[in-house]
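#struct-help
A.M.: can someone run this one for me? Single chain, 759 residues.
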Amino acid sequence: MRFTYFWPWWAVILGLAIMAGVTVYAYLCLKRVISWRLKSLLIALRILAFSVLLFCLLEPVFVEEIDVTPPMHLPILADTSRSMELQDVEFNGESATRITLANHLLFDASNRFLSSLNERFETHLYRFGEQSQQISEQPSPLDIEGSLTDIAASIQAAAREWRGQQTAGIVLITDGAHNASTFPLDDVLQLQIPIYSIGIGNPEPPKDLKIAKIEVNPVVHVEHEVPVYVSVQSNGYSGDQVRVALRRAENSENEESVVDATSVVLSDDAARVVEFNLTPKSEGSFKYTASVPTLNGEVSSDNNRKTFLLKVVKTKLHVLYIDGRPRWDYVFLKRALERDPNIESTCLILSGKSSYQLRDTLLNAANGYYPQNTNHFGLRRFPDSLRELMVYDVLIVGDIISSTLNAIQQAAVVEFVEKHGKSVVFLGGKRSLGINGLVKTRLAGILPVVLPPNGLIAKNEDFTLELTPSGLYHPITRLANTTANNEAIWRDLPPLSRWLGGAELRGGATELSVYHRDALTSPIPIIMFQRSGLGKSLLIAAEGVWNWGFGVWSFKNEDDAYPRFWAQTIRWLATSGEENQISVTTNLTTYSVGDIVGITVFAYDESYQPLNDAVIEIDVLPPSNQPFQIRASANGAGAGAYTAQFRADSHGNYSIKASGRQGEVVLGEDSTEVFAQLQLAELENPQLNESLLKQLAAKTGGAYLPVADASALPEKISAIQQPVMVTEERELWDTALVLISVVALLGMEWLLRKRKGLV
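D.P.: on it. Structure tokens below:
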């Protein structure tokens, strides 16, 4: 107790003495005779009343310290990931799953584990897999949920939730199968919270047989043999022989047919690799499954199958290249075509001499054609009929003269392009684009330019090319993955040696690159293309492209400009039909259930410039056959790229179709397919990870116990906490009791005096 107004002790005694003296004197001076007993009582009552008033004048305050220490919190994290359904423990003498033991520990009335903790701490129950989730006030037995285990993230989430509160530690009930990432032990230690781990499961690796890995090229060609390498791992079955089968899904109902099968002898020391060889017969996307049988005693059969998608595309492109004279452009291009694994090339070269000059030479028997290495079709001269020409996808015409191809051959080339949707590249030269060249042939009609009667003007001059807005993003001229790098590569390409100008572009032709000779003259188109009937034609009105084969100096370490240019040119020209203005891709072809599928859509206008203001919609057909739609948004990097994503939450095929429009203009659509398979990371190392749980407990100051000894855990958890005291003050004078006591004392004195006639 303390006083608000503190008086010196002598002042208080003096005040009481004066008050008592006045009171005694007043009663001694009474003229009426009363007994000393009554007189003493009256004096005492008055002195007592005045003492209470004096006590109130000092404003006494009662001071009390109250213990408001909050309860100690104890989060309890129970693992509910897929590995907890493994049946490798015993309960009541019978084989049981790990989750069964966890439920018994937490919810069985006969088990006092949770009630013992509740007596000392305020417990909070969580379930966790990839992330933690607090369980309601009336928890029910746990079930399996989650295809991955992230122990560290779950501990950190629980610690953040009770940050600032007094926490005795965190109880972790798990098999230790952390598989979401590398375990960040340092991050957990920074929390400075003891971890009390309870391990559930068998620490010895269980008997298991699984498909560990499949190695195969995801994109293959028709009629080409494809090796598929299947890795089979076993534990506990060394020496056993099993049958490894490769199956293909035949329809949407996933009915499968066996493609191939072979037997393998298992070894626990190393994986067995089985090689299958596929030879796809048609284009399309196909789903294959590698599987092994389920053996007695296996901990799980979920990892006995693994599925992959195989996209089969058209076989190698067939290219026919004819040139009218031996030159460096021919040598370098022939070499690039022969080195491209996706191209089957046939190269023909004519002598520049007349038939009279070749009269007594070996070339005369070959109609003036130089002998070449045997090609895919055994062709020694240019085809004489359309039927022979149709085996090719792209025709490259070099520096020829009007007499190189006869009328029948010229007509076949025109029909090859215009009526059958094939493509031709005119690799221009001084002769082919001059007065005695293509201008006098039927081929002039499918060129992207109108040749003047005397042909084009040829100028020997070193020059470099500049991409047009269309060329910046066109598949032919995109030599790098970013716009900045693409421009840098084209700027640093070695110069060409001769340009041919003076042509007029046909209507509908598109320029991809030009030569800016000076500021006063119009740019000279060098690389251009147009649609000719059902096919395409491309013209390079220059010589010296072979110089690009020497590399781009600023990109020397990763230079592939020359072969990439020709590979992209031929692949784009070989694409039949209209140019697709919408293109959809995914970052993977096969996912695990629960993964995020990343989608990228590219949108282009008619001249193949990127569209950054298109509206892109994506329709997804999941395995449940309940389609949903998502809208792609621009990724902020320009170049007509739009991104979207969704979660593959069920097992099976997902069909993805992207469509686009710009205002009222429909851009088209494109589609692809991905496959989601069951997440098997939980079964990679299914044994109890005691080493991780013991390390976690030891380094955080906690303790580790197997589930059989879990009842001893409550006594191991330290409950040391700093008490929290609060000072509470209560004013003793400002109460009704004080007023009542004063009135009672003075009133009693007055009544006694009244009875004796003193008032």
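A.M.: thanks! The first strand starts at residue 2 and ends at 3.
D.P.: also worth noting: The radius of gyration is 46 Å.
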